[in-house]
Amino acid sequence: MSFQQGLSGLNAAARNLDVIGNNVANTNTVGFKQSQAQFADVYANSLSNGTQPGLGVKVAAVAQQFSQGGITASNNSLDIAISGNGFYRLSDQGSISYSRNGQFHPDKDGYIVNSSGLRLTGYTADAAGQINAGAPSDIQISTADLPPRATTSVNTLVNLDSREAALSSAAFDPADSTTYHSFIPMPIHDSLGNSSTVSTYFVKTAANSWDVFAASEGTLLNGGAPLGALNFLSTGGLDPSSSAIFSVTKPVTTGANSVVFDMDFTGTTQFGSNFGVNALAEDGYASGRLTGFDVGADGMIRGSYSSGKILNLGQVVLANFSNPQGLQIQGDNTWTESSASGAPLVGAPNTGGLGSLQSGAVEDSNVELTSELVNMITAQRVYQANAQTIKTYDQLLQTLVNLR
């Protein structure tokens, strides 16, 4: 006669209640993954011949369940939810941990951190917004003004009216609208970010041929000579044998360098319809102050500037493991790798089986409260049943003691 089985059952049931209670307590913990107590029977090896009862039960493992939690919207653009596989990679002065809790904020130095001060890691970006996909490092958002960029290229796409009569005998004068057919004003920027306007003028000189002039603030550019000629085929498209890209130099008086840029008319047409501008874009911009940023599904952190420019500031990376259940729990919603989990597989979101990100949202705990309450009732009944086993053993023992 032994109390071993009942005692082991009480211990196992109590451990199960501990696990269930921890799940219930973390129902509202962002990124929390519920655990499950897993049991195994116990036998004495020397007696396990099929005729001996077991010695009870033990808790073989407390395994976390990494199923997806629900997604809830928030008002913080740095609240980031993971949809799919992966963990955030966090750094504490080089010590790396992993988390599913995406509640982040910038600290006083511009680093993106969680509530414990751990820094979110990812790929850095250079001054032009190009991502350096090397070793992940701490993500730091610079609040410095965005430096200006001088215009180096202007892409222009227009339709010139083929019905216009040629003006081959007229001397071009931007102040005289009878010496040209149409024009386009467009902004450009110098190396200090100052904006000015360059206007291009189109003069039809012969069938399917147009001269292009440029002027800025009343001053003719290129010495008053045409920048070049746009020659068209009889079908209305540009003649591929002649260039549609013209170099322009605009002197400035702001202390900046002269603006030297290419004016690209590739794609321009000459059809029998009214003159129209279909596209006009330059690659220069003024300086700007950071007004906000958000995170894309691919982890790209995009900053918005007062100049209207949007620039990549970095990219969040995710890490996954061959065996996530082998991760070592550290508390504070973090895990660390172990020999059982395998090495981390690090990459950009939406690549290599990693999940996507959703800015302005958090991943809820995956605890199903209703199921946990039912499990709690079941564990309570198991505890009571094992207690009854011990009580019965006690009654039998008392009967033996009372024998005379």
Automatic annotation (TrEMBL):
Record domain Flagellar hook protein FlgE D2: where: 159-285
Pfam families: Flg_bb_rod, Flg_bbr_C, FlgE_D2, LlgE_F_G_D1
InterPro entries: Falgellar_hook_FlgE_sf, Flag_bb_rod_N, Flagellar_basal_body_rod_CS, Flagellar_FlgE/F/G, Flg_bb/hook_C_dom, FlgE/F/G-like, FlgE_D2, LlgE_F_G-like_D1
Keyword Transcription belongs to the record: no
Domain (Flagellar hook protein FlgE/F/G-like D1): residue spans on this chain: 81-142
Domain Flagellar basal body rod protein N-terminal, first and last residues per copy: 6-33
Flagellar basal-body/hook protein C-terminal domain ranges (all copies): 358-403
Coiled-coil ranges per UniProt: none
Predominant location category: other
SUPFAM superfamilies: Flagellar hook protein flgE (SSF117143)
Keyword Lipoprotein: no
Keywords: Bacterial flagellum, Cell projection, Cilium, Flagellum
Domain of life of the organism encoding this protein: Bacteria
Similarity comment text for this entry: Belongs to the flagella basal body rod proteins family.
Primary role: A flexible structure which links the flagellar filament to the drive apparatus in the basal body.
The protein, known as: Flagellar hook protein FlgE
Organism of derivation: Nitrosospira multiformis
Lineage, broadest ranks: Bacteria, Pseudomonadati, Pseudomonadota, Betaproteobacteria, Nitrosomonadales
